[in-house]
Write a structure and sequence with these properties.
single chain; 5 strands; two-stranded antiparallel sheet; disordered N terminus; 142 residues; alpha/beta; 5 helices
Amino acid sequence: MNCLSFPAADGGQTADGGLTFCISDRTVYENPGYLARSERKLKREQKKLSRRQKGSNRYNRQRQKVNRLHAKVRHQRQDQIHKMTTGMTERYDESVIEDLNVSGMVKNHKLARSICDTGFHQIRRMLEYKWAQKGRKLSVTD
C-alpha cells in the first residue's frame, strides 16, 4: 500500500520564491508560478485599461484583453493542478494532507503573491473529490 503525505515537513520555499510540494516518497512538485510569468504583460495591459475612458469601445476591448490574460493564468493553473492531483490519486492508496492556515500565511507580504498563485484551496478540493471518486482514504490533519 502506497501512502502520501502532502505537504511533507521538508516542503518549503525554493530559492526562486515559488513554493514546492514535497511528498513522503521524495517526489517534488514545483509551483510553475503562472501569475509571476504573466505579471509583466498583465501590468502593461491593465495600465492601458486605466488610461481609457470608461464605457468607450476601446475601454471594452482593452477590458476583454485583460480578462483573457487573467483567464489564461487561471486555466494554466487549473491544468497543472489537475495533472498533479490525478497523478497522486493514481499512485497512492492512502493520503494525509495538512490543513494549512492560508489566510495567516498570506499576511507575510514577501510570500503572499506566490502563496496565492499556488492555489492551495483548489488543490485540496480536487484531491478530496478525486480520492472520493476512487473510493480511497484521504485524511486531513491540523
